[in-house]
Amino acid sequence: MTEEDAEYYNNLFAFRNQPQQSESIGTSHSNNRDSAIQNFAVYTIEGKELQVELYQIQGELLEGEERTVELVYSFGITKDSE
Fold this sequence. Notes:
The protein has about 80 residues and is mostly beta strands. The protein has two domains: about 1-30, no CATH class; about 35-80, no CATH class. Helix content is about 10%, strand content about 40%. It has a three-stranded antiparallel beta sheet, with no helix packed on it. The N and C termini lie far apart (about 50 Å).
């Protein structure tokens, strides 16, 4: 690995602004990554069951809004005993 390769690799982990706001990224992505609405999932495994809960976070911190978290959808998958 060359020094240039190592520098490029280490830059992948550097903190950046949103693509459309960063000089280090020449072209912005088509999606708006700094949205005030974000989603995440929580996975729980108990025995033979997988439970998935999907949450949505809303609120723009940079504009002083309080962030709220809401359970949007949940489902479970159970493995057969066979």
